[in-house]
Amino acid sequence: MTNEPHYFIAIPLKERHKEYYSKWQFDLKEELPYKQWANKEDLHITLKFLGSVESNKLNQLLNYLNVLEKTNEFKIATGSLGFFGNPKKPRVLWVGVDKTSALAALHHDVEDVSVSAGFEKDRRPFSPHITLAKKWNGEEVSMSGLKEQYDNDERLDLIVNQVIVYRIFPARTPKYEVVAAYELKGEVD
Fold first, then answer.
1. Contact at 8 Å (CB) between 94 and 82?
2. Which Pfam families match (predicted)?
3. What is the pLDDT of residues 132-152, one digit of tens each?
4. In this structure, are residues 87 and 38 in contact, taking their beta carbons and an 8 Å threshold?
5. Catalytic residue among 6, 17, 44, 107
6. Residues facing 75 on adjacent strands
7. Which of 95, 119, 138, 163 is 20–30 Å from 108 (CA)?
8. What is the 3-state secondary structure (H, E, C) of 87-116?
C-alpha cells in the first residue's frame, strides 16, 4: 500500500443536478441500507480512476490533459436509476448517463492521454453513471419497483463543458478536491 494521494478524472455536475439527485438520495435512504452515501458536493461522472499517483507523474498527466481544451462541449442526459451487482443486494446504486458518441469520444481521449502519461488502460467497458451510494449493508430487497419509480422521473440535460482532476481525501466530507480543471470549447444550443 502506497502513501501517495489518489486521484480520478471526471465530469462535474451542475448545482441543479446535485440538488436533484441529493433529493433522490434522501428518499432512497429510507428504503436502502447502504453504508456510504455520496455527499452532494462529491456527485460526478467518472471518466478515469487513476489511483495512487506520484507528483511527477501527476504533473505530466496534468500537462497532457491540456489537449482536452480543444474538445467541443456537448450535451448528455441523466436520469435512470440503476445498480451494479446482485439486484437484491446491489453493491453500487447510481444514476444513469446517456452514453452519447461525444461522451464516448471524450472518455477515449482521456484514456489515450492517461496511457501516454504512463497509466494503465482501463480494461472494463466505460459505463457512465453518477454514484449515489455503495457498500450494501442489510437484508435483500426488490429493486424493480424503485427502479421503475425513478426511471419514470424527469431526465435532466447536462452541458459537459469541463473536465476535472480530483484528489481523494477519504477522511473528509466532501471527499474530493479539485486539482485541475479543463474547459471544453464552444457553446451547445
1. yes
2. 2_5_RNA_ligase2 (PF13563)
3. 999 999 998 888 888 888 876
4. no
5. 44
6. 159
7. 95
8. CCCCCEEEEEECCCHHHHHHHHHHHHHHHH
Which grid cell is 138? 442489510
Closest Cα partner for 126 from 157, 100, 151, 92?
100
Residues lower than pLDDT 50 in the chain: 1
* 66: its cell numbers: 491540456
CA dihedral 106, 80, 94, 125 (to 10 degrees): -40
Taking the C-alpha atoms of residue 116 and residue 44, their distance in angstroms, rounded to an integer, is: 24
Q: Tens of pLDDT along 91-125?
A: 999 999 999 999 999 999 999 999 999 999 999 99
Q: Quick one: cell of 137?
A: 449493508
Number of H helices, E strands in the chain: 4, 9
Reduced to 3 states (helix: H, G, I; strand: E, B; else coil), residue 172 is coil
> What cell was used for 148?
421503475
Where residue 168 falls (left for φ over 0; alpha for ψ -120 to 50; beta otherwise) is: beta
C-alpha distances (whole Å) from 88 to each of 21, 26, 139, 142 are 22, 20, 8, 6
Distance CA 108, CA 137 (A): 35
Given a contact cutoff of 8 angstroms between Cβ atoms, the answer to whether 21 and 172 are in contact is no
